[in-house]
Amino acid sequence: MALARTRAVALLGVDGALVDVEAAITSGVPGLHLVGLPDAALNEARSRVRAAILTSGEHWPNRHVTVSLFPASMPKRGSGFDLAIAVALLGAEGAVSAEACAGTVMIGELGLDGRVRPVSGVLPAVLTAADAGVETVVVPKANLAEASLVPGVRVIGAGSLRALVARFRDLPPPDEGEDESCEEASAPQPNGLAARSRARRGDLDLADVRGQADARKVLEVSAAGGHHLLFTGPPGCGKTMLAERLPTLLPELDRDAALEVTAIHSVAGGLPTGQPLITHPPFCAPHHTASRAALVGGGSNRLIQPGAVSLAHRGVLFLDESPEFAGGVLDALRQPLEEGEVVIARSGATSRFPARFTLLLAANLCPCAATKVRDCTCAPSIRQRYLARLSGPLLDRIDLKSELKEVSRAELRYDLELAESSATVAERVLVARDRARRRLADLPWRTNADVPGRELRRRFAPPHGALAAIDQPLADGRLSARGLDRVVRVAWTLADLTGKDAPTASEVTQAFGLWQGR
Ligand SMILES: Nc1ncnc2c1ncn2[C@@H]1O[C@H](COP(=O)(O)OP(=O)(O)OP(=O)(O)O)[C@@H](O)[C@H]1O
Ligand SMILES: [Mg+2]
Ligand SMILES: [Zn+2]
What's the chain's average pLDDT? Predict the structure, then answer.
C-alpha cells in the first residue's frame, strides 16, 4: 500500500481547524473514494482532481484510491480541498516525494485544466495554519496577497497544479503563462495598504452637509463612543447624506481589528486581489428589501455566508428607510446587538461570525414623503404607526435619536464656510476615543458603547450628584433601566469629547435628551 499526507483547513464561519488529508493506493476496484464527512461540493472534487491530474500530464492510478479527511467528525465544505487531495494522491503514487508535501497546508480549487482557482476564506484559513505552527501554506495565486497578510508563515501562491508539482520535484517551472506559475509571498507591507482606504474616503466629506448643526453633533458623538443612532426627518433634509459620512469620522482600524474584519470579508468573497487588507471601518448599507439571512447571515449548509451585521463588524451598519424593512428582519438584529456575534447552526456544526457594529437607522416620519411638514397628508394614526414599525425593544437599544428639520434655503446657500470638514471632526473624535481607551486600558473594550451594563455600573458610575438630573424620568418611567445604562454611556462620551474626567449633571442631562430624541 502506498500512502501520502497533506493538510488543509476546514472553516466554520471565521474559525478554522486543520484537516489531515491522507491518500492511500491499494489493489482493488479502480476508483477514488472520499471519506470523512465531505459535503456535495467536496464530493465533486473527485472529478475535478482526476481531470486536473490528467491534464497536468500526470499519471492517474488505475487502482483503488481512498482519500480520507481527519478529523472525520468535522464538517468540510466547498471546493478548497482539491489541491490538498490532488497532491496527496500524487504523493501516494510516488509522482512527488511524500516527505516534501507532508505537513504543508494546501488550499485551492482545481479547474479541469489544472489551474488553481481562487477560493473564499483564505485569510482565516492561513491564520488557522499559522496559529497551529504550520511552516508553509500553498494558496491559489489569486489569493496570495490576502494570504501574505499573515505574519510568521511561508506562503506560496500556486497558479497551476503542474507548476506546484514541478516545485515539489525541485524542477524548473514548466514553460507556461505568468498566471500559472508559482510565486512566493514577500513580507507583509502594512503601510502600503493603508493608503488605499484613505483615498477611498476622499470623496465624501461632512463639509458637504449644510446646516443640521444638531444632527452633525450627534453624528460626532456616535463616532466618538460607538453609539447606535437614529435619524428621523422629512425627505431630502440630509439623513442619508449624514449617515454615509459617519465612516469619514472614524479612526483607522488597528492591525488586529483589520485582520478580523478582512477575515470576515474573505469568507464572504470579493476582497480586492491587489491590496486586500481592510484598514478602514467598513460601511454596510443593505437595502430595505434585504432578507433576514442577508442581514444576519445564513444560507444553505453548502454555503454559509456572513450577513450585513458581520460585514459591518467594527464599522457601521446603515439601514436607510428603516421602517420599510420587514418587521421580523429588524427583530433579528437584537441578538447580534446583544452578543456582538452571530452563530449559525447547520447539520450539527455551528459557524461563528463576529458582529460588533454601530447601528445607524434613518427614517422618514411618515410614509407620504412630503418634504414639508405642512404638506403631509397622513392621518395622525398612520404617522404614529409608521415609526412604530421600529419596535420598542429595538429603539430602546438606540443611544442617540435625532430629529432633523428641513434645511432652509438660506442654510443651503450660505452655510458653506461654517460647515466643518470630516478631518476637523475626526480629530476631536480621535482625542475622545483616546481618553476612553486610556480609561478602558487593560479591559477588553475599546469604546464606551462596548462596556457591558454590569461593568458600567460597577466601574464607571458617574460621580454622585451627576445622576440627580434623571431621577425624575426614572421615577415616572420615561427612562428604563436599560435606557439608564445607555444614557450613562453617552454621558461618558460627552465628557470625553469635552475633556472632562467624568460626566457631570450637564452631560447626563444632554445624554438623556439625546436618548429621548429631543
Ligand atoms: N443639509 C444638506 N446640505 C446639503 N445638501 C443637502 C442637505 N440635505 C439635502 N441635501 C441635498 O438633497 C439630497 C437628498 O438628501 P438626502 O438623500 O440625504 O435626504 P434624506 O433625508 O435621506 O431624504 P429621504 O428621506 O428622501 O431619503 C442630497 O443629495 C443633497 O444634494
Ligand atoms: Mg434618504
Ligand atoms: Zn405624511
Answer: 88
Q: Outline which parts of the chain fall under CATH 3.30.230.10.
A: 2-188
Rounded to whole angstroms, the Cα distance separating 470 from 457 reads 15
58-116 pLDDT, tens digit each:
998 889 999 999 888 777 877 899 999 999 999 999 999 888 888 899 999 999 999 99
Which segments of 34-121 does DSSP mark as H helices, in order?
Answer: 40-43, 45-55, 82-93, 98-101
CATH number of 2-188: 3.30.230.10
For the segment 356-379, the average pLDDT, to the nearest whole number, is 83
Q: Give the integer Cα–Cα distance in Å for 393 and 387.
A: 13
Contacts of 365 (CB under 8 A, 6+ apart): 232, 233, 234, 376, 383, 386, 387, 403
Q: What percent of the chain has pLDDT over 90?
A: 55
Q: What is the CATH number of domain 194-450?
A: 3.40.50.300
Dist CA 132 CA 504 (whole Å):
49
Cis peptide before 276 (omega within 30 of 0): no
CA of 416 to the centre of ligand 1 (A): 15
**Domain 451-518: assigned CATH number:** 1.10.20
Of 193-202, 289-298, 347-356, least confident by mean pLDDT is 193-202
Q: CATH 1.10.20 spans which residues of the chain? A: 451-518
Residue 368 CA, ligand 3 centroid: distance in Å? 4
115 CB near ligand 1 (under 6 Å): no
What is the 406 CA–ligand 1 centroid distance (Å)? 9
Q: What is the pLDDT, as a whole number, of residue 192?
A: 38
- Is the distance from the beta carbon of residue 237 to the nearest atom of ligand 1 less than 6 Å? yes
Which residues make up the CATH 3.40.50.300 domain(s) of the chain? 194-450
Residue 241 CB less than 6 A away from ligand 1: yes
DSSP 390-411: S-HHHHHT-SEEEEPPPPPHHH
Of all protein residues, the one whose alpha carbon is nearest to atom 12 of ligand 1 is 236
- Can you give the pTM of this predicted structure? 0.87
d(CA 226, CA 446): 9
Is 208 or 369 the better-scoring residue by pLDDT? 208
Ligand 1 centre distance from Cα of residue 423 (Å): 21
What confidence score (pLDDT) does residue 414 get? 64
pLDDT band at 138 (very low <50, low <70, confident <90, very high): very high
Strand partners, 224: none
